Amino acid sequence: MGILGTGIQEGLLLKPVKYRWAMDLYDQAVANTWFPNEIQLGEDIADFKKMTDEERHAIEFLMSFFNPSELIVNKALAFGVYPYVNAPEAHLYLAKQMWEEANHCMSFEYVLETFPVDREKIYGQHIESPTIARKEAFETKFIKRMTESTLDINTTEGKQDFLRNLIAYNIIMEGIWFYSGFMVALSFRQRNLLRNYGSLIDWVVRDESLHLKFGINLILTVLEENPEVATEEFVEEVVAMIKEAVEMECEYNEEMFPSGILGLNANYVNQYVKYLADRRFEELGLPAQYNVTNPAKWMATANDTLQLVNFFESTNTSYEVNAQSTKV
């Protein structure tokens, strides 16, 4: 029996563990457990008040996207992944990830409750902003497909739908859009501003790096067990999906930085987005599309491309990703 299936009475015995990578990531996720109120965000209020209108706009715009997006990821997991996976070790990890997404949502609520911001304006912005609304519509399209009665996970087409949802929420939302936002958020700490907010983002990044590893491992496992899924047309579709997501993120950054702030503007962030996208292409065994350098080397040393099997060509013999943080 492979990792995909919908049997309610299957996958009820954890031992022996079949997918060790899922169990290892679950153990790491449990070890990473944290709570937002452990960080004293009130100490950042003075920084926030002395920032320029453009700087505050950038932080508020990030919150407008991040807050609902954490819950969108939970919908992608609850409707599009958990019901179609049989392995109990994968269910354990997914349950912990869903809790983490809820914890991230509460973390951003904590930011909104602490900083002197217009909460209703920030809530409304994710609907009123065309660039945020476009990103959300992109994600929900794939989630909705996973709930339709015509989807049959036992068919090649059903497995492709499963992977589309995975790529949309994991590779694109978590692996590109979130990491782009993390860089923007952490850029303030580079200027000795919002240091505790930066620490909160550090903890979110630590969780999201494991989410990304789980998703990549799940993609690789599905493809190894179902090689017929990786048609030439599907490969082209995956590349097009990611490139469309990069375009959406670039438009979003133009709205976040209409005139730029000290040390940061849309062009800078968009180069980082393209750099991230190339890392995700490579981690999936696909060729880089943008070939740009990392403009934010301060985020970490050069990204360690995961030692993974070629996404669509090779036979995988060892697809485990270790549970250390993904560098970006």
TrEMBL record:
It is an enzyme of class 1 (oxidoreductase). The chain crosses the membrane at residues 166-188. Gene3D superfamilies: Ribonucleotide Reductase, subunit A. InterPro entries: Ferritin-like_SF, RNR-like, RNR_small, RNR_small_fam. It catalyses: a 2'-deoxyribonucleoside 5'-diphosphate + [thioredoxin]-disulfide + H2O = a ribonucleoside 5'-diphosphate + [thioredoxin]-dithiol. The keyword Ribosomal protein does not apply. Coiled coil: none annotated. One of its GO terms (molecular function) is ribonucleoside-diphosphate reductase activity, thioredoxin disulfide as acceptor. Its cofactor is Fe cation. The keyword Transmembrane helix applies. PANTHER family: RIBONUCLEOSIDE-DIPHOSPHATE REDUCTASE SMALL CHAIN (PTHR23409), RIBONUCLEOSIDE-DIPHOSPHATE REDUCTASE SUBUNIT M2 (PTHR23409:SF18). This is Ribonucleoside-diphosphate reductase subunit beta.
